[in-house]
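Input (SEC-C domain-containing protein):
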Amino acid sequence: MGKGALRNQNPCLCGAPRKFKDCCWGLTDEQIQNKANGKVIKEAGKRANIKTCLYPDKSQCSEGIIQAHGLQNNKILSKLSENGDVYMVDVLFGKNGPQIELVKQGRKKATTFTGFCGKHDTEVFSPIENQDYETGNKMQEALFAFRALAKEWHTKLKSKNMFDGVLKTNRNEYVLAFYEGIMLALDDIEKEMLAFQEVLLVEAPDRISTKLIVFEGEADVAVSACITMSHDFNGKRLEHFTSHPWLTPDQLFITIFPQNGKTFCLLSYDTNATETFAFLDEQLLNKSVAEQKELLSRLVIHHSENIVYSPRYIDALSEQQKTLLKERITESVGFLEDEPLLNRELGISLFT
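Output:
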């Protein structure tokens, strides 16, 4: 193909519906491929949504699957929003591959997922949707943890569905590595449902243990996350991650939210994982308030993208701090199990 013909190729080599000269002219082959990969993933994502109720007993489900919130809209997101908006992390695809950005979203859309029918979203989560959190209320703590699990489960199911489609036409190393990670994560999450079946079906909230930290003042962030920790805060590998390869590692559920002049930080897990997370007492709960804020910031930023930031928090950051925050989040996306991150100084705090 001659140079002139290439310049006028429509669609562009990356797949965009524009002429090559108006889109990718001047980019390297690698940059064009990055844009093409991003377009494939983005289009697959639009077709991959999962609509299902994740409550363990579906016999009483209502017909409609709704847009449920991972963090309560009325009690938490409304408190964080400015002019109806909050900030969340998003992955944008461009010539340099996937890039982490902080994107403004309407609070009615933020953290939503099609993971529950209307009946179960309303009835199951009523104790945390319609009532303030009470310290030591085990059922509320278990429901916060289940909400985090459900949001992460739905995200991974959607990702699997998306990559099932991508793999039909693209089986490069990048795509295969992501798919393998998704399948491992689904195994981890589905194991945790055994605990929540007891919590929800036989009302046994004691199956979930929770460690609580309370800060004075209301933080301008909120978190609902289900994570796998490979190392403790000292950089030591946790045994559950590699010592028993036939078992799946234990999950930690993190819920952080402002309420009545305080910030509540809940760290929850299956009681069968008590030994796994015993280090939290010495390395986190017994630290000073300043150290706790630093360590929790490391834990959340390095392990979760399901963080909601108030515009008040983002607008107070300098451009250098915003860049640093995105760099720290990006580190977690490329996280390797042999590279502990929690023992490194973060340089930015979620609790100002």
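The two ends are 58 Å apart (CA to CA).
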